[in-house]
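Hey, quick one: can you model this chain's 3D structure?
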Amino acid sequence: MNKELETKINQYREQGFAQVLLGLTDLDGVLRGKYVNLDKFASLMTKGGGFCDCVFGWDIDDQLYDAGSYTGWHTGFPDTHYRLLTSSERINPLTNTPFFLGEFTDPAASDHPLCPRTLLRKVTHQLQDLGFGVKAGFEYEFFVFNETSRSVREKAFRDLEPLTEGNFGYSVLRAASKSQDFNGLLDFCRDFDIPVEGLHCETGPGVWEAALSIAPVLDAADRATLFKTFSKVYFQQRANIATFMAKWSMKYPGQSGHFHYSLTNEDGSNAFSGALGEICEPARFALAGLEKYLPALLCLFAPTVNSYTRLVKGAWAPISSSWGIENRTCAIRWINSAGNEHIEHRVPGADSNPYLVAAGTLTACVLGLEEQVEPNDPVVGNAYDVDADSDCRFSNNLRDAADKLSSSQAVRRILGDEFVDHFVMTRHWEQEQAQKTINDWQLNRYFESI
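Sure thing. Here's the predicted structure for all 450 residues.
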């Protein structure tokens, strides 16, 4: 054990810490992990660790895939290696326990081909080769209910009681009357190093929106991942429950997971800044790359069957690859604020994996910069009224979106064949599981009448 680690372990013991919680993100954005005692933690920091690779061989419900070559019954589900990230150290204020993020590794190649975090880092390195860094921030809409994990299941997810009633978008009344909840979540996030720059009610009963502070893109994705998990922990410890489903009810608009980003120059300045009212060359190429490759990358931003109930006309979510200046009906919103010029990618839902959202968005950016493509004219007015070219329209289901990802050779070159093939397989599986289910709509429509 090196001196620095020995000092850290002794500090933990003096502070009364007996164990550490660690977490690694799977393809669906679920944090998988465990508590370890301090001796095991010291070993993991020194030698790395092993985690059953079933985390890449099962779905969000822990059901094993019946396809794919990476892992399965045919491999015996061996351990895959991982390392803990010292820079991710936090003290969870809810439990007063140290927490560390990890990332999966491949002994032969260092970076694991299926690890969402290392995939994002791989893409950022390609941008660095082009002379750019990335600053980014995520914002999430989510519903909070006066329910528990047990009660929502007892009710079969019907007739749920929202934390607040009525449509109170941006309501100071709701924020002030629920100040204990709002301030409590903000304080928790700040203490857990997940700074939130804005929190408000959205339109709909019990729906909130949180804008996370801007940071270098890997840090931003770490914070987004932690926010999605630990905001749910925060509410569940208060006998409430939060959901980040893309759409939990057809009565209300869906829940977004918008991604804001800009490129930075070597000196840290905003590479998207230009003359007032103009869009500079790197920004144009980034816009055009995203506009061109959004349909092929869609299943990274809309990764569940439920995602496609959100991407419908008039529901504050885009239905085609379009961009506009300060236009919230478009898939891509150019924000032309002097000194803060950046792109808002409005396609991702709250159900998306932050690492894959960032990796997919920046993949399109790399391709746009390499190809030096120019964007189409910006949409003025209602993007839903624009008759989009068939190549620009989004797939309306997960299987078709996954097929488009599979067939894009340009995207494969950036993300890698092994990742694309495995991820496409998992999305096909997800679609197949939905097709095996009889839902309420089918029963109500056909049970007696057909």
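One thing worth noting: The longest strand covers residues 133-145.
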